[in-house]
Amino acid sequence: MVRTSAGSDSQARDQDKQHQARKAFTQGLIRAIEDAEARRNSQSGESMAAAAYDKLQYDFPAVSAEELQALLGAIRCVSSVA
């Protein structure tokens, strides 16, 4: 099979589009991770505990490990005072 220059150009464009799509996806993923870390770092333990408690009111809660740790810490503080 003999390739024409038009076929090579088309293949090169397709590869470039795939590369650009992967690059955009990776950059978006990095931004989302950085945003999540910034939100996590800016939240106080009390607000994370409250968020975890609110989420646990549903059948299938989506609670992060950090929120559960904050809630556990709040429960321990309350139980040690009582």
Q: What is the gyration radius calculated from CA atoms?
A: 24 Å
What's the helical proportion of residues?
A: over 70%
Major beta sheet summary: none
Number of spatially distinct domains: 2
Helix and strand pattern: HHH
Distance between the termini: 82 Å
Q: How many strand elements? A: 0
| Overall pLDDT level | 83
What's the overall geometry? rod-shaped
Strand portion, in percent?
under 5%
Helix count, DSSP H or I runs of 4 or more residues: 3
Secondary structure class reads mainly alpha
Which residues sit in consecutive blocks of at least 5 with pLDDT less than 50? none
Q: How is this structure best summarized?
A:
The chain is built from 3 helices and no strands.
